[in-house]
Write a structure and sequence with these properties.
Structural class: alpha+beta
Shape: elongated
Radius of gyration: 23 Å
Number of helices: 7
Strand content: 25-35%
Helix content: 25-40%
Order of helices and strands: EEEEEEEEEEEHHHEHEHEHEEHEEEEEEE
Distance between the termini: 20 Å
Length: 354
C-alpha cells in the first residue's frame, strides 16, 4: 500500500504480478472499461485533515492540507490538525530530524493544532486525540485493503504488506496487525518508490482482442494462434451466461489448461467451481515487453534506530527507524533486519525475517 500526502492507494500483488481490472470507476462512479492495475484509493494521507463531524465524532479526511500550507507542523501557516501532526504529537516523527526534502517540523504547532481539536471533541489531552486521529486513518486504510483481499475471498494473512509512500511505513505495523499479516516489507526508497518504479519498469505494449470463444471454438489451435508472438498473455474468461470475467495469467494456450485454471480461479474468488458448465473466453490480452534499464540494487547504509544510530541492521520493536525517504514505526512484537538492498523486512511473533 502507498500512503502519500492526500490519499492511500492499495493493490494486490499475486504471484509477482499486480491484479488488473477493466471494470473500474472514477470520480462519481463513472465506469472505465480500460485495462489497468486494480488500485483502490481512500482519502487517508499524511495531510488528511482531522475534525469534528456533525454528530460530534472524530473524522479524518477526505479534505487535505496539501503541500501548501500543508500540516500545521510544516510551519507554513497551516492551522488544522492532520495525520502528520498526530504522528509528531505521538513521537513517531522527530522534530529534530527534517523530513525528506529538508522539511523542518514544528512540534509546538502540531501540539497546538491537535490540542484545539481535542478541546472541541472533549478529549482529555492532545496525545489521546492524536491516537484517535491515527486510529481513524488506519481504519480507512484497512477498509481499502479488505476490499482487495477479504471481499474477494483472499486471505490477507497469506501475503506480506509492502508499505511505501512518504507516510506508509508510519502506519504499517498497526495495519498489518489488524489484518493478521505477519510480514512487512519496506523498501529503502519507500518515499519515492513509485517514481523509481516508473524509471526502472519494463516497456510494454498491450493489445486486447475480443474473441467470445466457447464450445468447439475454444480449442488448442485457436488459443495457440491468439498467443503467437506474445511475451505475456492474459485470458479473460467466464462461465457462459455470466457478466463478469476473471483474468488468468501464466496459463498455457491449451483448452483443457484454460478451463482448469478458470475453475480454480473461480473457486478461489467465489468459493465454488462448476466443471460441468461451459467456459467462455471473452478477451485475450497480449503484451510485447522490452526490458527496462539495468538497475543495480545495493545498500549504502542500514536503517537505524533514531535513539542510538548504530546502524547494525538488526531491528527489534518498539522503536522508530529513520529511512532515507520515510520513517518506519516498529511496534512491540516485531523484529527483523535490512537485506542486501537496504529493504527492511519485519516479522511478527518472533519469526525470522527471510
Amino acid at each position: 500500500y502507498d500512503m502519500g500526502g492526500t490519499s492511500t492507494d492499495v493493490a494486490l500483488i499475486h504471484g509477482g504480478m499486480p491484479e488488473v481490472s477493466s471494470e473500474l470507476t472514477i470520480d462519481y462512479g463513472l465506469p472505465i472499461h480500460v485495462p489497468m492495475v486494480d488500485v483502490r484509493t481512500v482519502g487517508a494521507g499524511g495531510g488528511s485533515i482531522a475534525g469534528r463531524a456533525a454528530g460530534g465524532a472524530l473524522r479524518v479526511g477526505p479534505r487535505s492540507a496539501g503541500a501548501d500550507p500543508g500540516p500545521a507542523c510544516y510551519g507554513r501557516g497551516g492551522s488544522e490538525p492532520t495525520v502528520t501532526d498526530a504522528n509528531v504529537v505521538l513521537g513517531h516523527l522527530d522534530p529534530r530530524r527534517p523530513l525528506a526534502g529538508g522539511v523542518a517540523l514544528d512540534a509546538e504547532a502540531a501540539h497546538a493544532a491537535v490540542g484545539r481539536l481535542a478541546e472541541a471533541l472533549g478529549v482529555e489531552d492532545d496525545r489521546a486525540c492524536a491516537e484517535g486521529i491515527v486510529r481513524v486513518a488506519n481504519t480507512e486504510m484497512v477498509r481499502a485493503l479488505r476490499v482487495v483481499t477479504v471481499e474477494r475471498g483472499i486471505d490477507p494473512r497469506r501475503f506480506a504488506l509492502l508499505a511505501f509512500g512518504g507516510a506508509g511505513p508510519l502506519h504499517a505495523a498497526a495495519i498489518a496487525e489488524e489484518l493478521g499479516i505477519t510480514r512487512i516489507v519496506v523498501p529503502r526508497a519507500a518515499g519515492v518508490l513509485s517514481a523509481l518504479g516508473l524509471a526502472a519498469a519494463d516497456r510494454r505494449r498491450d493489445v486486447a482482442h475480443s474473441v467470445l470463444l466457447r464450445g468447439d471454438g475454444l480449442n488448442d489451435d485457436a488459443l495457440a494462434d491468439l498467443a503467437a508472438g506474445a511475451d505475456e498473455v492474459t485470458w479473460d474468461a467466464r462461465y457462459a451466461g455470466q457478466s463478469h470475467e476473471l483474468a488468468l495469467r501464466d496459463v498455457a494456450p491449451e483448452a483443457a489448461a484454460l478451463r482448469d485454471a478458470f475453475g480454480a480461479a473461480h473457486e478461489e474468488r467465489y468459493g465454488y467451481r462448476d466443471d460441468g458448465a461451459e467456459v467462455e473466453l471473452v478477451t485475450v490480452r497480449t503484451a510485447r515487453i522490452e526490458p527496462g534499464p539495468a538497475v543495480r540494487w545495493e545498500r549504502d547504509g542500514d536503517a537505524t534506530d533514531e535513539g542510538d544510530g548504530d546502524g547494525d541492521g538488526a531491528i527489534a520493536g518498539p522503536t522508530v527507524l529513520a529511512l532515507p525517504e520515510a520513517t518506519l514505526v516498529v511496534a512491540a512484537g516485531w523484529r527483523g533486519r535490512t537485506d542486501a538492498t537496504g529493504t527492511v523486512v519485519l516479522e511478527r511473533d518472533g519469526r525470522d525475517a527471510a
